[in-house]
Design goal:
The chain is 42% helix and 20% strand. It has 233 residues and is α/β, with parallel strands linked by helices. The strands form three sheets. The chain has a five-stranded parallel beta sheet, with helices on both faces. It is elongated.
Length: 233
C-alpha cells in the first residue's frame, strides 16, 4: 500500500484528505508543521509527499529544498499544495522540481487523480534497454540518467519527458504532445501552462547538457516545440 506523507497545518483539511485517500487504498501520515514533516521523512521514506507551502514554522519552498536534499539521487515525488493560485507561483514550484502543483480549494478526487498519475510515472518502467547518445545514457529499466558515467538527478516527470523525446529522436514534438507522452493525459491540457513544460526542459538541460545555453541534445524549434537531436549536435 503506497505511503503518502501530508505536511499540512490545516488539521481539518488534512483529516478529510487522509480519510479519502485511506478509502482508496493509501496509507497516510500527517505532519502539521515543517519540523515534524522532516522528522517523519527521516523515519520512513514515503512514496509521495503532499506539501503545503504556507506552514506556520517554515517557508514551504525552503522545506521543499530540504526534502530534496534527503535523497538527492532518487528524490521523493512532491505535490505542492497552496492557497496561492497564481500561475507564477506554480511555475516557481515546477522550476524547483515539484511533480505537480494544486491550488486550494480543490476536490479530493482531483488530488487522488494527480497522486495516481505521479506514482504511475515513478514506478512503471519503460523497458530494460538503455538509450545512448554520445556520453548520455538513458536507462529506462532502472530509470536512471548518466552523463559520462555520472548519474544525474531528475524528477520522475522529467525522466519521462526526456525518455519520450529520446525515443522519438529527430521528431519535433509540441508541448502538448510532450505533456501527453510524459503521462499527463489524465489531466485536461491547459495551454496557459505551456511554460511548465519549458521549465522542466530547462532543468533537464541543466542536468544533461555541457552548455545548457547551447544544447546539443534538446533543441528548441520556435513556434513548434522541441526535438531531440539524433547526432551529437
Amino acid at each position: 500500500m503506497p505511503l503518502i506523507l501530508m505536511i499540512e497545518d490545516d488539521v481539518r483539511l488534512a483529516r478529510m484528505v487522509a480519510d479519502y485517500l485511506r478509502q482508496n487504498q493509501f496509507e497516510v501520515q500527517h505532519a502539521a508543521d515543517g519540523a515534524s514533516g522532516l522528522a517523519a521523512l527521516r523515519r520512513h521514506r514515503p512514496d509521495l509527499v503532499i506539501l503545503d507551502l504556507m506552514l506556520p514554522d517554515a517557508n514551504g519552498l525552503d522545506l521543499f529544498r530540504e526534502i530534496r536534499a534527503l535523497h538527492p539521487s532518487a528524490p521523493v515525488p512532491v505535490i505542492m499544495l497552496t492557497a496561492r493560485g497564481d500561475p507564477v507561483d506554480r511555475v516557481v514550484g515546477l522550476e524547483m522540481g515539484a511533480e505537480d502543483y494544486i491550488p486550494k480549494p480543490f476536490e479530493p478526487r482531483e488530488l487522488l487523480a494527480r497522486i495516481r498519475v505521479v506514482l504511475r510515472r515513478a514506478h512503471s518502467p519503460l523497458g530494460a534497454d538503455v538509450l545512448r547518445f554520445g556520453l548520455l545514457e538513458i536507462d529506462r529499466g532502472a530509470r536512471q540518467i548518466r552523463v559520462d558515467g555520472e548519474e544525474k538527478s531528475l524528477t520522475s516527470y522529467q525522466f519521462d519527458l526526456l525518455a519520450a523525446m529520446a525515443e522519438r529522436a529527430g521528431r519535433v514534438l509540441s508541448r502538448e504532445q510532450l505533456a501527453d507522452l510524459a503521462g499527463r493525459q489524465d489531466q485536461p491540457y491547459d495551454p496557459a501552462l505551456d511554460r511548465s513544460v519549458d521549465v522542466h526542459i530547462a532543468r533537464i538541460r541543466a542536468s544533461i547538457e555541457e552548455d545548457p545555453k547551447h544544447p546539443r541534445h534538446i533543441i528548441t524549434v520556435r513556434g513548434a516545440g522541441y526535438v531531440f537531436a539524433k547526432g551529437p549536435g
